[in-house]
Amino acid sequence: MNGKNIKALVFDVFGTVVDWRTSIARQAEEFGSKHGVEANWDQFADDWRDGYHSGMIKVNSGEDKWKIVDEIHRDRLELLLEKYEFPALEEDEIAYFNKSWHRLEGWPDSTAGLNRLKSKFIVASLSNGNVSLLTNMAKFANLPWDAVLSAELAGKYKTHPWAYQRTAQLLGLEPEEVMLVAAHNGDLRGAINAGLHAALVTRPKEFGNSKKPDLEPEPDFAFFAKDFHDLADQLGCE
Amino acid sequence: MNGKNIKALVFDVFGTVVDWRTSIARQAEEFGSKHGVEANWDQFADDWRDGYHSGMIKVNSGEDKWKIVDEIHRDRLELLLEKYEFPALEEDEIAYFNKSWHRLEGWPDSTAGLNRLKSKFIVASLSNGNVSLLTNMAKFANLPWDAVLSAELAGKYKTHPWAYQRTAQLLGLEPEEVMLVAAHNGDLRGAINAGLHAALVTRPKEFGNSKKPDLEPEPDFAFFAKDFHDLADQLGCE
């Protein structure tokens, strides 16, 4: 029916399934307000997110030993608390705020769309976020994963091929039986390089006005959809 | 409220959550019937299960390299197909039958009880079964795991302490924030040795009349319940 014998859909999460920027900006504003700090909180969210990318590059290159994303977020947060001139804070408060990334809201179609896709395919996360982050987020945002899979279980971050291939292995599938669903062409290119199929779902609001989203598929992407319902329609899900 | 700061319940699966013996005997009978083989299929199920234990011991001792449970089941199945005098079979048929263990029915209280427990705790599998087996089983038996965790992610089978401790680590929790729920005192002893709490849920029908079930808790088990609803009641779940 999909013509490709796809048995599992695996999902990029930050940006594709959840609206990290709005959720982080909102929590940061609350946190700042509590501690008497004013700032552009959208910018704060972007600043925090930038640390995620550079932290992962250091791990995949071998410059840093393996660190889960909670630790990468914490490293960056320490710098941001100084940069944004927060007062001295209790460890418990910092730890709770660092877990703002466990408390991200889904896009409006995420839960219902995943439930439709789940009726016909295995649906699993394939995020660089660590398993506990993804597990807590799934409870918070009501994401009905069949399995919570993560680059943590590969010991390599996307877009390293092993992050994708390990996920297929854990699902007992060949790479070509798995399709990555993501809002980011670079991630989808990584999946194709690892032997998976690729579906671009656009999330035009992910970055606000700070950065251009990917809105056009590359020629070898198998599917191109405007949200999870559109993808479910194209895949023949009820 | 539970007096122990427990944040996650992790579950033994074979016997505790699903009725493997009835489910395997039924599928084996169908398979035998198709191929003109008659046998005591309860005995066949027990024979197959025995290979699981001996296969894991060889892995944990280092005698065998790491093998997932699907492979351990397959090793045993090859012997049983001879012993029970099956005719020559196609590879696809053997592979499908080997995955009978992915198609096990839950006990009558499993789905509803897990949903109640899930309202208050993270609920995750902690089985020796591989991730793909557990993921497929969860879809088949409607098991609403927050996360599908497995000894496969530790590279050691229970009752090795790392199987339990790795699960706590992946959940971002200390061992004492996690409780194993199981129908088997040996598994619960392994959990306590690894720093987790233990809850015995009895499954008197697990072995039919072939083997005595564990029906009495040991003194340091934190909870003792007759099914998942009873456990949910004791833990104050709605």
Q: Could you characterize what this model shows?
A:
The structure is a homodimer of 238-residue chains. With 238 residues, chain A is of the alpha/beta class. Chain A folds into two domains: 141 residues, HAD superfamily/HAD-like (Rossmann fold, 3-Layer(aba) Sandwich); 82 residues, Putative phosphatase, domain 2 (DNA polymerase, domain 1, Orthogonal Bundle). Chain A contains nine helices and six strands, in the order βαααααβαβαβαββα. A six-stranded parallel beta sheet of chain A has the order 3-2-1-4-5-6, with helices on both faces. In chain A, helix 8 links the parallel strand 4 and strand 5. In chain A, helix 1 packs across helix 2, helix 2 packs across helix 3 and helix 5 packs parallel to helix 9. At the A-B interface, helix 6 and strand 3 of A face helix 6 and strand 3 of B.
Strand content of chain A: 5-15%
Largest sheet report of chain A? 6 strands, parallel
Quaternary form: homodimer
Shape of chain A from CA axes? globular
What CATH calls the topology of the largest domain in chain A is: Rossmann fold
In CATH, what is the class of the largest domain in chain A? Alpha Beta
Total number of β-strand segments of chain A?
Answer: 6
User: How much helicity do the residues of chain A have?
Assistant: 40-55%
Report the end-to-end length of chain A measured between terminal Cα atoms: 13 Å
Q: What's the pLDDT, averaged over the residues of chain A? A: 96
Radius of gyration of chain A: 18 Å
Give me the number of helical elements of chain A: 9
The chain pair forming the largest interface, with residue counts per chain, is: A-B, 22 and 22 residues
Question: CATH architecture of the largest domain in chain A, please?
Answer: 3-Layer(aba) Sandwich
User: What would CATH call the homologous superfamily of the largest domain in chain A?
Assistant: HAD superfamily/HAD-like
Sheet with the most strands: spatial strand order of chain A: 3-2-1-4-5-6
Count of individual domains of chain A: 2
Pairing-aware structural class of the strands and helices of chain A? Answer: alpha/beta
String of helices and strands of chain A: EHHHHHEHEHEHEEH
Unreliable spans of chain A = none
